[in-house]
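Lecture 7 notes: from sequence to structure.

We start with a single chain of 278 residues. Read the sequence below before looking at the structure.
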Amino acid sequence: MFKGLYTVTSGMIAQQRKTELLTNNMANANTPGFKADQSTIRSFPDMLLSARGTANIPTEKGLNLLNIQEIGALNTGVYLQETLANYSQGSIYETSFNTDFALINGTMPVDEESSATGSIFFRLQHPDGGEAYTRNGNFTLDGQGYLVNSEGYYVLSNEGERIQLPNDNFQLTQDGSIFVDDAQYTTLGVAFSANPDLLVKQDNGLFRTNNETNLPSAYNQEGVTFSMQQKHLEGSNVDSAQAMTDLLTAYRAFEANQKVLQAYDKSMDKAVNEIGKV
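Now the structure, written as tokens:
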């Protein structure tokens, strides 16, 4: 009886967490550069049940033999194993701002150990030290002319330096070069992660490495090709229709587990208040 309660409760918790994940995806469907989260639900290891007994053999001394009868497997519940971001390319759309940049994937190598496809990111200076990474190219110039993101993090060049511009009248070429008055000023910093699943996803579309070390530059990386487009942004890669379908499925699964839990509760109520009186 109680094992069933634990199984149902674990299912409700897993579906609730999946619902929260899908709700967050839908809330960021219009956030530039947002990468949708994906979840994996797995079951705990099954337990093999068997009945142990003895068989009496009518002999002169009386012989008892151990008898084990296999009943079957018992599932002990499910859990949300991990949450990983989907790093596929979002749609590119045009804006009217010079400080809006879109990263466009070309070819990305596949990591031999993890079979994960590599990904590229804009480089930002994190206030706590080291670098943060993002696909959201919705940048602006602060009061001192530094290129920053919406949180005020400084955008870095390929040399790891802050990018300070005289004004917003500049050009970004497809290869990442920034030109001011027809002269090359600097190169926009782009980092490459061979296995982006190892990155830690933070708020506001930011990513960091586990050990806070900096990712290598994406320029001149073997097998990596990409381009950039000024006055464009990369949209979210959330599939709203699929997310809504998955959300309804998770909600129905939660409801089904809830009804089973209510049935267990009624059975226990009868066992205590009715059978116990006999």
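The radius of gyration is 28 Å. Keep this in mind for problem set 3.
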